[in-house]
Amino acid sequence: MRIVQKYGGSSMGSVERIGLVAARIARSHAQGHSIVVVVSAMQGETDRLLKLAAQLSPRPRDREIDVLLATGEQVSIALLALALREKGIDARSFLGHQVRILTDNVHGSARIQTIDAAPVQECLDRGEVVVVAGFQGVDQDGNITTLGRGGSDLSAVAMAAAIAADACEIYSDVDGIYTTDPAICSRARKIDRIWAEEMLELASLGAKVLQARSVEFALKHKVTICCKSTFDDGDGSWVIPQTVTMGGEAMQGLEGAVVTGIACDRQTARFSVSGILNRPGAAAALFRPLAQDAINVDVIIQTAPQDGYCELSFTVPQVSARRTAELLESLRPTMGFGQVRLAENVAKVSIVGAGMRSQPGVALRAFEALGDAGIDIELISTSEIKISLVVDDRFTEAAVRVLHDAFELHAVGR
Ligand code: ADP
Ligand code: ASP
Ligand code: MG
Predict the structure, then answer these.
(1) Domain count, the chain
(2) Per-residue pLDDT tens for 58-87?
(3) Which of 45, 154, 241, 281 has the fewest beta carbons closer than 10 A?
(4) From the CA of 173, how far away is ligand 3's center (Å)?
(5) What is the CATH number of the domain that holds 359?
């Protein structure tokens, strides 16, 4: 078989761990498989590099930041190739530009356009293990680009599509995809199979086990992902790359449940702007400068107008909170709203499930469970297959556990 194996920071934490990764690859190689390995930087390295850069420049998306961040993965591929060679395996490391992972030029969140599979194929034909740097690519002018945080998952899925791999295995420190983050909820249960569409929602809403864009790519290019643990030999969890069709059995989660999982995003801040004169275009005027600054506004709620005035509440990523506050203040002279309140530490807790499309009452059950636990809901947003609730971050873990219990996610075949 032709297999892509991706090892993230959680598997590449130390030289000892890199040794374990090499041993696992050696076992697959000995079974006769052709293996392309995609690796991330060692754990904490990308954050360390970002902190260094932040001391010198506040710009988050910049050509030079990508040059800096790409070094983390360069270290990893070299160390892993060395470890494999020590085990008597012919291994060869490649940077993104050497396998021509061609991307657009959006530094910090570049999109993959094509991959040149020829150099990889040549190595595989010689029986070598190919070790590719994840997270990085090159634009058509030869500049190094990076694919966004957690982007090695995307590199692996794209590589699997490019070489028409039989399997795309994503290894980390958990043995699969759970009903919620097992680090938060000890009753979390491993899911054997999940629709890519549900996984995409979970990942976009904070479940870090897979990067959202990698799941989107897998769905589009029909790559089946299997999430496994680097440190044991379990079967892992399969992400099935099909859309959940309307009608028939497929509207349910693959395990027959209405709710499949719970995710949380703790890097969220909430703004409430009161005393906005309720006239056509008011919301557009408020959000325009934020959009122009590429600030990602998420849950938005507007109160019904009272005496001609209304209040708007919304969330933004915590890292954008300061900039958002500045932009709002700059609007005050022209818009003349009242108070701007900022809650810097809120979290978005989300319930996801394909079966929610056909089942009323899911939201009510969530509200009741949180109410009984004395947890205030600050904002609510819903879509076909998810409900997101914004709560004070002090209650995040409790909210996740309460909801997990309320939907009995610990039990199979509810
Ligand atoms: P890597 O560094 O290998 O890319 P990550 O840290 O990005 O690994 O992802 C693995 C982590 O994702 C786990 O340690 C776990 O705490 C977290 N996680 C969050 N949500 C889930 C979930 N639903 N199922 C499994 N793991 C999850
Ligand atoms: N090293 C990068 C990051 O920390 C990419 C990855 O881990 O997938 O985001
Ligand atoms: Mg990751």
Answers:
(1) 2
(2) 776 789 999 999 999 999 999 999 999 999
(3) 281
(4) 10
(5) 3.30.2130.10
